[in-house]
Specification:
Blueprint lengths: L1 H47 L14 H5 L2 E5 L2 E13 L10 E9 L2 H9 L1 H13 L3 H5 L1 H19 L8 E9 L1
Antiparallel strand pairs: 1-2, 2-3, 3-4
Length: 179
C-alpha cells in the first residue's frame, strides 16, 4: 500500500512538473514579446524619429513637404533645399512603353523664394515634364546627358521664375528612374 501511494504521488508530481513546463513554455515567449514591443515603442522608435505609418508619397504636394525643407550653410549665405516633387514622363521615341520618374530638389538663396516656388509649383512641374518628354532614353541614361539635363532644367526654372543664378545656385535629383 505504501509503495502504491508512493508511485501515485510520483506520477502526480511528474504530471504537475510537465504542466508547469508547458505553462512556462507558453508564457515566457509572450512576456518576451511584450517586453520587446515596449522597448521598441518607447526607446527605439522615438530615437530614430520613425513615424507610425505617416508616409509621404513621392510626387504629391502636401503641407508636410514644405516642412521638410532643409537648410544648409554656405559661408555667410544661408541656402535652403526645397523639394519640388516627382514627375512622371514618357521619353521621346518610346511610344509610351517606357517612362522616366524624376524627383527634383532646388537649392534656394532665401526662404522667400520657397513661397514663390510653392505658388508656381504646377508650372515648374509642367516645365519639367516638357523637358523630360523631349529627351530620348540614351540621353537620360548617360552621365553627360544627366548633367546636361540638370543644366537645362536649371535654366528653365530660372527663366520661368525670373530669378538669377544666385537665387537658384543648384538643382539636385532626389530620384531618377528610367523604366
Amino acid at each position: 500500500m505504501a509503495e502504491e501511494n508512493l508511485i501515485e504521488t510520483k506520477e502526480e508530481n511528474i504530471k504537475k512538473d510537465s504542466k508547469i513546463k508547458l505553462y512556462l513554455a507558453m508564457t515566457v515567449p509572450i512576456i518576451l514579446m511584450l517586453v520587446g514591443f515596449f522597448l521598441v515603442t518607447k526607446f527605439i522608435n522615438p530615437r530614430f524619429n520613425i513615424s507610425g505609418g505617416n508616409a509621404i508619397s513621392g510626387g504629391e504636394s502636401s503641407e508636410s513637404k514644405s516642412d521638410m525643407d532643409k537648410s544648409k550653410k554656405h559661408g555667410k549665405n544661408k541656402t535652403i533645399i526645397h523639394e519640388l516633387g516627382s514627375v512622371l514622363a514618357n521619353p521621346i521615341g518610346t511610344d509610351g512603353r517606357r517612362f522616366v520618374k524624376v524627383g527634383v530638389c532646388l537649392e534656394l538663396g532665401s526662404k522667400d523664394l520657397a513661397k514663390q516656388i510653392d505658388e508656381s509649383k504646377s508650372k515648374l512641374q509642367h516645365q519639367l515634364i516638357l523637358i523630360l518628354s523631349s529627351k530620348d532614353i540614351e540621353t537620360l541614361t548617360s552621365p553627360t546627358g544627366k548633367a546636361l539635363l540638370l543644366d537645362e532644367i536649371k535654366k528653365s526654372m530660372i527663366a520661368q521664375l525670373e530669378l538669377t543664378n544666385e537665387d537658384l545656385p543648384n538643382i539636385y535629383f532626389s530620384e531618377f528612374i528610367v523604366q
